Each structure stands twice: as structure tokens, then as C-alpha cells.
Amino acid sequence: MNNLNSENMCNCCNSANSCGGTNGISWDREKCEYCGPCAIKCPNDAIMVVNPKGLELPSRAKTERANEFKMCDLCGTCVSACPTEALQMGKIVHNEKEYDRIEFTPSLCDSCGACVEICPQNVLKLNEEYKLKGFCVMCLKCIDACDKTNQNALSLK
Q1: Does the annotation flag 10 for ligand binding?
Q2: For the structural domain made of 18-156, what CATH number should be given?
Q3: I need a labelling partner for 45 at 20 to 30 A (CA). Which of 1, 31, 38, 144 fits?
Q4: What does the entry comment about cofactor binding?
């Protein structure tokens, strides 16, 4: 599954080539070369890329798939599904503009997995060390990594 529906339209903003919610990070599939620095730099594993050689990043697992991109699009489905309110929609300011972001309070998380099961992008993961990974905190490290490749496939909306 990726962020595009069967008509190759973004599930959240309904545009043809970009994805990333209505107020966050936009992905332009026409510019993307699936090279993966964005996934590697993301501190919360909110991006998964399968490169042309079939290497899934950031995990570096070999797969038969190729050229796949998934990211947290800040849709808030996980927040709605969380029975303990460990996940909340928050705000962050970049360049004087306010953006949505997901905030996580580990002490409230009961590891029920409701958020993981309902995530439409299939990027959330429960683990023992951090409890939950895969949600976007809008740190913008992915955009910086993509800019360094001169692809500019990721940008702020």
C-alpha cells in the first residue's frame, strides 16, 4: 500500500502527484527516485522506501518489491483510534507557518496496537524500546536529506 489510491490520486489531498496530507510534507512521485535518504534520516521511521534494487529503507531488508514509497501523512487516524490518548495532534511552527504534527506520550501508551492496525499508510510499528514508531513529528530531516540529492521530491505544503 502507498499513499495513492487505485486511481493514482492521493488518499488525503486528492492530487495526482503529491501526497502528505493537507498541512505537512508533500511527496512528488514524479521527482522521486526512491533513493531513500529521506527514510534513513527520519528519526521516527515515518517513511519507508523500497529502492530500485529492492532494498527496503530504513531497515535495509531485501525484498522483491521495487520503487515503493510510504510515509505518515498526518491524517490523524491513529490519534482517533488511540483509546488512551497517547497520540495527539499537535502543532509546530516552521518559518512562521503553523503545521500539524503527531505527538506521542509513551507513558500513556498501553501497546494495544489499535493505531498500528488502522494506519492507512501502514507505517506505524510497536516495539519494546520506543513503544511506537512511524508517525511524523515534522522535524523536516527528510526534506533536508531529499534536497541534498537534488531531487526535491519532498517539500513543505
Answers
A1: no
A2: 3.30.70.20
A3: 31
A4: Binds 4 [4Fe-4S] clusters.
pTM over the 0.85 mark: no
pLDDT one-digit tens code per residue, 72-117: 999 999 999 999 999 999 999 988 999 999 999 999 999 999 999 9
Is 19 annotated in a binding site? The answer is no
pLDDT value at residue 150:
84
Domain chopping of the chain, boundaries: 18-156
Distance between start and end Cα atoms, the chain: 22
Would you say 142 is a known binding-site residue?
yes
Residue 119 known to bind ligand:
yes
